[in-house]
Amino acid sequence: MNHAFISASGGAVYPCPIVTSAMNRRDNLAMPHPAPQSAGRDPRLDFFRGVALVMIFINHVPGNFLEGITSKNFGFSDAAEAFVLMSGMSAGLAYSSAYERDAMMATGRILRRARHLYGVHLATTVIAVAILMTGHHFLATDTLSDRVNLGSYLDAPWKTAAGFVAMTHQLGYFNILPLYIVLIAATPIFLAIASISRPALIAVSVGIWGMAGCFNINLPNFPAEGMWFLNPFSWQLIFCIGLCAGMASKKQESFVGYNPTLMAASLAYLAFSLFVIEGQHYELTNWGDHPAFLVGFDKGILPLPRLLHILALAYVVSQLPACGRIAANARLGALTLLGKHGLAVFAWGSLISIALQVLREAYPFPLLLEAAAIVAGLTAQYLVAERLQNSKLSARLATQAT
After folding, report:
1. Is 225 exposed, middle or buried (0-12, 13-18, 19+ CB in 10 A)?
2. Burial 101-116 (b: 16+ CB within 10 A, else e)
3. d(Cα 319, Cα 330) in Å, to the nearest integer?
4. Any domain includes 6
5. Which of 180, 253, 179 lies closest to 219 in space, CA to CA?
6. What is the pLDDT of residues 152-170, one digit of tens each?
7. Does some domain include residue 12?
8. Domain for residue 384, yes or no?
């Protein structure tokens, strides 16, 4: 999940942007030279996205026996940071060249993508509410209802329905897509700045992140009080970093090249994070009277420790030659297939995970049944991806035949 720092668009090969310079050095063994675009798809791109999806699914069934081995237990960041970084890279790869050629046409494509994501969010939330309502009324899953913010649907259904349509009311475990929709919708603005200067976009993005952290700037909830759980004004920073990396990769340029000092610093920070998380040597949430977004660990505002962790992890993993070999291993092709159809797999995984939460809340799950349920859920997601892949291949063959 945290390893999902690579994404793709279409079927072309795009080398990981933060290792391009390392790949071009003959004395560096981190990665082979990137293949030409006609050679096919870089297996790392979908493989790491598939890894992310598996971990997201496991973490969305809290308390299961596999949750303890997911990446969130070994560092400050978790699946959400990886997802947003990956999404930014994907946007940079998919839209940057088109935006340079025709900004208006590219903007239309981006907004259609945001509309599609919005439709998926509406559909999955409606089904999730139906599942949760069934559990609440027939299986007495009141505790789960409170935990996932279902109470507003029970107390003020019409107001909540309006909030649901406006994305100002979000179920627990269903708040990543609204963030992603907002960031994708803002991508034309990001690209407009980045097309002038990628460093300028990073500077503007850091400024917005700092202002949001200092002054608690966020989007409001409705009808419930409070703000969005994942603050888009904070999280746009990691998206923009990914966007710039994707743009660099599209141009076959290096975003952050190999540097021994940077590698050592990244490894040291990852080790420090692991030491803190595993050892619990001090209270993470009390580092004195300092701004929370600089020293805290509140996931919603993307604080600096979490941001640095996912960036350090992305950098280190991108330099390891073993990662390319693992991603290319045919025996792990199921993960790659999941990654190729990420949106559908994510949507179905979200629904399966919320159904499992209802069942586990209502009935005790022995270890064997819990394991079977997780395996069945992952298998269902694989079958969705396989069917989509077969349909895609059939359509391609039909097009070639004509």
Report:
1. exposed
2. eeeeebbebbeebbee
3. 21
4. no
5. 179
6. 999 999 999 999 999 999 9
7. no
8. yes
Separation of alpha carbons 256 and 178, rounded Å: 30
User: Which residues span the domain enclosing 130?
Assistant: 17-401
- Specify whether the backbone of 41 is left (phi greater than 0), alpha (psi in -120 to 50) or beta: beta
Q: Name the token pair of 121.
A: 């969010």
Considering the domain boundaries, does residue 3 fall inside one?
Answer: no
The residues near 226 (Cβ < 8 Å, ≥ 6 apart) are: 220
The identity of residue 91, as a single letter, is: A
Q: How many angstroms separate the first and last alpha carbons of the chain?
A: 41
Q: Specify the pTM.
A: 0.86
> How many domains are there within the chain?
1
Tell me the residue type at 344.
A
Length reported for the chain: 402
Nearby residues of 176 by Cβ (< 8 Å), 6 or more positions away: 80, 83, 230
Strand partners, 276: none
Q: Rounded to an integer, what distance in angstroms lies between the CA atom of residue 84 and that of residue 224?
A: 26
Q: 167-226, pLDDT tens digit by residue?
A: 999 999 999 999 999 999 999 999 999 999 999 999 999 999 999 999 999 999 999 999
Q: Coil, helix or strand for 211?
A: helix
